[in-house]
Design brief:
CATH topology of the largest domain: FAD/NAD(P)-binding domain
Bound molecules: flavin-adenine dinucleotide
Strand content: 15-25%
Largest sheet: 6 strands, antiparallel
Number of domains: 3
Shape: globular
Number of helices: 16
Radius of gyration: 22 Å
Length: about 475
């Protein structure tokens, strides 16, 4: 079994460390932030500072695929999340039966286990502290890679890392789980590798979030999905732990007229004008300000260039490999799938031939995870272009089958119980809709049922009203 160093104790970093340790590996997690995890949900919410995770206090929703991985592979993590008040609920079964039809056996797959980000991270950290084979060292910022003998001339082989304090930590494999802002390209340059191939663009979205709590532990009733589009803005309404929930407004970062949403009063005025979600403000606010975030990148990176690895002994997992529009909430689910893929390859291919392992990791990542990233990025590009067109007072009419298909499926999902399930299972990272539709031979039904999506009325303030509310 291998000695493995995981860089980053984020929610996927710790989850992957635990998966690896279950397979018998000896895992050390090095985390930059020194602050130890809080001990209660309230303390996590009020006092746990996580400078390394910018999105720490923004609304999160952990999807069914994340729940499925922890239930099956890390039941102690699922138990720990439940112990701190994490919410198990099934968004499909909460839809009235008139719309979704009678319950079906595999509807249970859609159950999620979720909570506010600090609370989920507290629960995962508590499980990691107890996990045999995992050592978490906080306050250990990594500053570079250590190279050892290469198995092929010109391809550096990583044998560990150096921390800012100068300590060297050696390993058979280094797993980069340092998140969206992973510094590995700089470290690889210092090592003298070819540059990794990166596709990078600003997703163009801006987030404005706030959390609420109910007095009696109940949650607002959902009149639609967790993300709903209202012309040039989208709403997020995300159930969480202990009777709390997150509420967000997503805009285009180019939409300067809505920058006023950082102001609490303007944010409340705009959110309160969104008819199907305004009641999600009926609770006690537990944030005293609006948390905002922009410069959210869609970025994918590979260390496999021109058909072969540029480095061995180092793999990027989770957001360090690829990150995309967070409003779809796929990061933790895809990250845990990536962690499972890493475990499978260590079992099936092993580390005896580092080149073979690095190539197999890149190929499997491309085959199994890249399709999810491509789908998400395509959705992002269309949505942000649609918003930017709306801001300019234009209709968005791209000549693109994928856009037409996505809109039609979203519309059809409210009219057809089979398509509803396919839509929701896609949103929950259980199966991509195109795969499900081909498997069930239902692809034509999407345009038959949802093809008239352009004619549907949108109950939302018009653009002028929105701008007035955001600037009044
Ligand atoms: C606004 C927003 C909302 C989101 N909402 C959702 C959601 O609802 N559902 C969902 O599933 N996903 C969501 N995501 C994505 C999700 O947060 C990420 O996919 C997830 O955090 C990735 O986990 P990770 O462990 O790979 O990285 P991170 O959680 O980013 O953790 C990286 C860790 O690495 C550490 N680190 C960084 N550099 C170093 C270094 N040099 N040395 C040592 N440690 C280092 C950091 O301190 C940090 O602890 C959202 C993202 C954003 C931006």
């Amino acid at each position: 079994m291998a000695e493995i160093v995981v860089l980053g104790a984020g929610v996927v970093g710790l989850g992957t460390a635990m998966l690896l340790a279950k397979d018998g590996h000896d895992v050390t997690v090095l985390e930059r932030d020194a602050t130890p995890p809080a001990s209660t949900p309230d303390e996590a919410w009020e006092r746990w500072a996580r400078r390394g995770v910018n999105q720490f206090r923004l609304p999160h929703y952990f999807l069914a695929r994340y729940r499925a991985v922890v239930d099956a592979e890390l039941p102690e993590v699922a138990g720990s999340i439940e112990q701190v008040g994490g919410l198990r609920h099934n968004p499909l079964l909460e839809i009235p039966e008139e719309l979704r039809g009678p319950e079906r056996p595999d509807d249970a797959d859609c159950e999620v286990l979720t909570g506010r980000r600090p609370v989920i991270e507290l629960a995962v950290a508590a499980a990691a502290e107890r996990a045999r084979g995992v050592t978490v060292r906080r306050g250990m910022p990594v500053s570079g890679l250590l190279a050892g003998p290469s198995s092929r001339a010109g391809t550096p082989h990583v044998v560990g890392v150096r921390t800012e304090s100068g300590e060297e930590v050696r390993a058979d494999l280094v797993v980069d789980l340092t998140g969206r802002r992973s510094p590995t390209p700089r470290w690889l340059e210092e090592l003298g590798t070819k540059p990794p191939v990166e596709e990078l663009e600003d997703s163009g979205f801006m987030y404005f979030g706030r959390h609420y709590r109910s007095e009696d532990g109940t949650l607002p009733f959902a009149l639609g999905g967790g993300i709903q589009h209202f012309g040039t803005i989208s709403s997020l309404t995300l159930p969480a732990d202990n009777g709390t929930w997150g509420v967000g407004i997503v805009t285009s970062a180019k939409d300067k007229a809505l920058l006023g949403l950082r102001d609490l009063g303007k944010w409340e005025a705009v959110f309160g004008a969104l008819p199907t979600v305004a009641h999600w403000m009926d609770g006690t606010p537990i944030d005293d300000k609006i948390t905002s975030m922009s410069k959210i990148e869609d970025r994918i990176r590979t260390f496999h260039v021109d058909g072969s690895p540029i480095v061995t002994g180092l793999v990027p997992v989770g957001d360090a490999w690829a990150c995309s529009n967070p409003s779809l909430g796929r990061g933790a689910s895809l990250g845990m799938l990536h962690g499972l893929l890493l475990c499978d390859l260590l079992r099936d291919v092993g580390l005896d031939d580092p080149l073979q392992f690095a190539a197999a990791f890149a190929t499997s990542t491309d085959d199994q995870l890249r399709p999810w990233f491509d789908w998400t990025r395509s959705t992002d590009r269309h949505r942000v272009a649609q918003v930017d067109a709306g801001v300019a007072g234009e209709r968005y009419e791209p000549d693109d089958d994928d856009f037409e298909f996505e809109q039609a499926l979203a519309s059809a999902s409210s009219k057809d119980p089979d398509l509803l399930r396919i839509f929701i299972r896609g949103a929950l990272v259980l199966e991509r809709p195109r795969d499900a539709l081909s498997r069930l031979d239902l692809i034509d039904r999407v345009s038959e049922v949802g093809g008239a999506w352009r004619d549907e009325p949108m109950a939302a303030p018009d653009r002028d009203e929105l701008v007035r509310l955001a600037s009044a």
